[in-house]
Write a structure and sequence with these properties.
Layout: H1 4-16, H2 19-26, H3 30-44, E1 49-52, E2 55-58, H4 60-87, E3 92-98, H5 100-105, H6 107-117, E4 121-127, H7 130-139, E5 144-150, E6 161-176, E7 196-199, H8 205-216, E8 222-226, H9 230-238, E9 244-247, E10 258-262, E11 268-276, H10 283-297
Helix pairs in contact: 1-2, 1-3, 1-4, 2-3, 6-10
Length: about 300
Amino acid sequence: MLNLERLRTLDALARHGSVSGAAGALHVTTSAVSQQLGKLEREVGQRLLAKHGRGVRLTDAGRLLAEHAERILSQVQLAQSDLEAHRGQVVGELRLSAFPTAARGLFPLALATLRARHPGLRVRSGELEPVPGVAAVVRGDVDLAVVLDWYNKPVPVPEELVKAPLLDDPADVALPVGHRLAERAEVDLAELAGEEWITWGEGEFCHEWLVFTLRSKGIEPNIAHRAGETHSQLGLVRAGFGVCIAPALGRNPVPPGVVTVPLTQRVRRHVFAVWRADADRRPSIRAAVDALRTAAGQLG
């Protein structure tokens, strides 16, 4: 009889390509991963791993079993979803993630709604940027992620995930009071050439979007400061250290000394939820989407 947790370990190794990657995805030690895979090899009576440089690779038998493991784990998730749907009650545990401004702007209202409507549901939440959030859903680390893409730069979503739109989030440029453009009704991105920018962390999806968008307008961005949280960026704007893009979601209250001006390009982020298709029938997933949409509808 194949052990489900050992198959899950093999699946994680196949997805991440290394023992350390599998350990990180499963939130266990590398030693625990090695022990589980060793036991699995003894169960099947075949070598599943072979040394490859300083790491390991799957043998032919390992790849074959990993393909089966992926299907088996998907069927287990589907069985759990069907049982939960058959019971028809929103109970159990639900793991959610969201990018930081959605965690700030949507989660307090959405989680309060879920607690009021479904007291038997235990919700666990955390912050993940859009691309890691999608990956966490694919791996099964979280059940549902709130992610985003920009009007001109979509985030890749694998076919095995379901998407549900939550809201369109307009983004303005934030300027210090007294800036030459602060009293304008709207500003064109081209007028910001030469400005110092306050942006997100290197490699973050929103930072990559800003660089891509400015360069598409012929502007080479002058990145002066980085901050992962909107209010940290706005604090730097207030102190006169540059300008930033300020999406509406999660930015209120805008601090004194800062004004937000719409962009001529009408910049928007599309905010949506994603979850695995094999979990689509879970009442808790549907309840979470409804609560998120209720929270989105109550925003200013």
